[in-house]
Amino acid sequence: MAKLYFHYATMNAGKSTMLLQASYNYRERGMRTAIFIASHDDRAGRGRISSRIGLQSDAIAFDASDDLEAKVAALQADGTGQIACVFVDEAQFLSESQVWQLARIADRLHIPVMAYGLRTDFQGRLFPGSYALLAIADELREVRTICHCGRKATMVARLDADGKVAKEGAQVEVGGNDKYISYCRRHWEDIMMAD
User: Fold this and answer.
1) Mean pLDDT for the chain overall
2) Pick the CATH number of 4-144 from 2.60.40.10, 3.40.50.720, 3.40.50.300, 3.40.50.10310
3) Predicted model pTM
4) Can you state the subunit structure given in the record (predicted)?
């Protein structure tokens, strides 16, 4: 039975690396995968996923208005082979309706869906895609990383252009190590409460 999985973590936990490795494992066995990434995450180029350790892959860029179920159904019907698994990077950027589309891919098209993304933003608030995935995914899997103190990091802080912790701003601002630092809840609260 196909399921919808949500692998969540803070920044720099290795989510993209895990996604690329899992897709490679399918392809190594002759199975076709479909990899999606939010179109506004163009750090590696539009429609491209790159991990911090150098793994890369082409992906299908999606916008908030795209119907992912229809895209996967079209891929299934294109004559180049069945899709064995669907992967979604930066899943926090999905809309609620797109999360339901992913559920239908698992439930009706019988294709496993592996979504990878952040749980919360730099202010400790759930992203819309993460909120919906936490609510309806069949399996939730936390990908762990650590704070500078050695405790499990569950929060992320955003840095401004001067390298100072940002306490307000738009929820979505794409960036990597240059903009975000993962912390345990205690140290995140300490930096967010500091003047």
Assistant:
1) 86
2) 3.40.50.300
3) 0.85
4) Homotetramer.
